Amino acid sequence: MVKSRKILNKRLYRMIWSTRGQYGAILVTIILGILIYIAMTMAANNLRTTLDTYYEEYNFADFFLEVNQAGPSVLTDLEKLEGVTRADGFLSSSASFVTEDPDERVNVLLRSFTGKEQVNRLILLEGREIRDPYKEVMVFKPFADARGLQTGDIITLQINGTPVEFVIAGLAASPEFIYLMESIDSLITDPAKYGAVFMDQELMQGLLGMKGSYNYIVLDYEESRIPPDQEEAFTDQVLEEIEPLLEGFGIQRIYHRRDQLRNLMIDQEIQGLKTMSSSV
Hints:
With about 280 residues, the protein is α+β, with helices and mostly antiparallel strands. It contains 7 helices and 11 strands.
């Protein structure tokens, strides 16, 4: 019996040796699969951790409210809601970026700021903060890089049909624009064709004829109140509590950060990495 087993073992070893190339290829394929799985899983986890840290550091909003026009009293009312720790109001609009080529179409998102906001805080990457609010702006850095713009350059924006010149004081980023897109119809946007410009709030209110008003409000919410296993249902309930406070101000859209288009895109990329790693 022992002798027969030895003979079978010898035959097995000979067979493996004679087909060692195939076994080697299978072994390499298995090892590569494991390495790819580990690498992609780590990449997805690291990206998620980095994104969450970035959002927390610059206080990415939990809720977004778009209206036609609302005054400062709305911010006070919103901050009285249980769980809302901060409400910041902005003006948001669009403008044409004037270039030397009259046939070139370049648009920018205009966003007001005061420098005192606690939600969706701007990150100054190059240059300095605005000193002259009537002449200076900050520009979204990827847009500036794509167009070769630097601090000190003069740009012209067509706002409400009127060309206005500004000096670039600084280049900035925002947790809200981690994945900048012009619209849901243009998911892949050329950074040289669409960007963002941040300007003083009082100046923008004057340019748009909305003195003392906002059309874009962001809320910081106490996350510990949101049950992890019931997040969607709970946040939908919060949105229902918010809506009555905005009646009469022309509600355009109110939504949680999970439905914020730019955040949704980066979230899907992370989820795609996880899915790919699982399929491997």
